Amino acid sequence: MTDWSDPDAIDCSDGATFDALLDRADTREKGHYFEFFAEGDELTHDPGLRLSQHGSEQWMGQTLNHDPAYWRSDTARERGFEDVPVHPDYLLACVMGITVEDLSEKGGYFLGRTDVEFHRSARPGTELAVTSRVVDTRTSSSRPAYGIVTWATEGRDRETGETLVSYQRTNMIPRREPAATDGGGEATGRPDDPDGGPDLPETLLAPEGGRFEDFRDALDDAEAESAAVAYRHERGRTMDDQLVAGLPLATLNTARQHHNRDEMADSPSGDIVAYGDVTRSIALAHARSDEATYRERRFADERFHSFVTLGDTIYGFTRVLDCDGDAGPEAVGAVTFEHVAFNQDNTPVYSGRRTALVQRYQ
Ligand SMILES: CC(C)(COP(=O)(O)OP(=O)(O)OC[C@H]1O[C@@H](n2cnc3c(N)ncnc32)[C@H](O)[C@@H]1OP(=O)(O)O)[C@@H](O)C(=O)NCCC(=O)NCCSC(=O)C[C@](C)(O)C(=O)O
């Protein structure tokens, strides 16, 4: 009779026997299926994460976000920070990263996010406390293997209890008992146009520079010429392993989509995909490199339209929607942009509206 306490009871040299053994073993599952979530449920996310200067600098370097206020104390102070804070994209990615184990580790893709508000900046060393509330659940009509869940999430400073950032995000989440298989067709790669809104005019203007007045003057010119203020950014960034797998893991984002090629081979994307926050941060970096950003304010209507996989290159396109000269301190004005990230085939992969305070000419 086999002695099951014998360390040699598992014969690793015999592939077929081991295969049969795996077949009989239950898998201790991670994450939750769609059915787990009920509207109104509150979840406290336990993974500890301390925002670090290294993490922030690594994120900024890899995503091309080079705003000196997040690297250097002299510029940080000039811009009204007490000290060098972590970059807001890193903060947001970390707050979301540590929710993944509870909310979306089971799989299914990040579809969109809205009402992203930065309440205060965070210093390196801040320990996070993150909670989420289930806002909405519904089954997907086009992809019966999935449900669609929306959560409201708040990231706080664990020591002071102050809210740092809050948002609502929506994911596809696999159903425990899918109505059918995947059910959906290939992603179209075309952004939805929920309003069926008008196309952009023929004439697209670019602002002369990156200061508040440049955006305001461009909008005034565009109105006079029935044009739009919309332009491309020159830089591109090819998705390598560090971006696709490394950065999400550094934020404790355990979604298999980013680091398990084996599991993802049978998924709708067929391969690992970039964390949405990495893709968006790269496109925003391209846009910020063409503007004198003072402070990030808020994001709305963020959508992830198509997969980004290893080897794809991310470019940015920006449209200026609005300028508000009365917002924020005297030396700045608020500009609302629509940013689109697109790949080497000009396929949009992300879009979202962003309001930032932008410096004026002194
Ligand atoms: C997923 C794909 C294949 C679906 O492609 P499709 O052609 O089926 O597309 P769809 O029409 O855009 O959407 C399917 C359903 O979702 C709904 N929907 C869509 N957007 C929203 C939204 N914002 N709010 C509410 N609902 C939304 C939409 O209304 C529809 O509902 P229906 O099935 O009942 O008709 C396609 O959209 C795609 O390729 N998207 C890109 C996904 C992606 O790469 N996301 C980022 C990476 S995953 C990630 O970062 C993971 C993370 C952060 O780690 C982690 O959550 O754990």
From TrEMBL:
GO terms for molecular function: lyase activity. Residues 172-207 are annotated as: Disordered. It holds the Pfam family MC_hydratase. PANTHER family: BETA-METHYLMALYL-COA DEHYDRATASE, MONOAMINE OXIDASE-RELATED. This is Acyl dehydratase.
